[in-house]
Amino acid sequence: MTGGLYSIDPFEGEYLDLKNLILPMVVLGIRPMSIIVQLTRSSLLDVLSQDYIRTAKAKGLSAYTIITRHALRNALNPVVTAISGWLGSLLAGAVFIEYIFGWNGIGKLTVTSLENYDLPVIMGIVLFVSIVFIVLNILADLLYGIIDPRVRVS
Description:
By secondary structure, the chain is mainly α. The chain is built from 5 helices and 2 strands, in the order ββααααα. It has a two-stranded antiparallel ribbon. α3 (63-101) runs antiparallel to α5 and α4 (106-116) packs antiparallel against α5.
């Protein structure tokens, strides 16, 4: 298989070929990363104009402490919301990435099952992807409690 995750060398055997991950990672992650960076910047600029940031500056705290302990924690709430929303599109994009790059995975299995009208496999894949999506959203909700002390799981 050309461009696969594992390569077979007649002398060394099967080994993990990480250079074949670079292009799929860039293709899958460039758009969400740019939006997340832009959202983080705008949210951080909004938080840096708040009164409690001016109070922290007046107390003499360093810029690093102000940004990491005060501003960034409050600015990450919309970013976590955006990331949890992008998880579904990343899962769907992974299906196309696997099919385009010819990898044997759940994405290629999905496309093959759809072409062959294999309904039990399709239902299993949909169930698996929905469980993964639910677990990732629960983790994002738990992350809210870690980032923002005002939000606690009770």
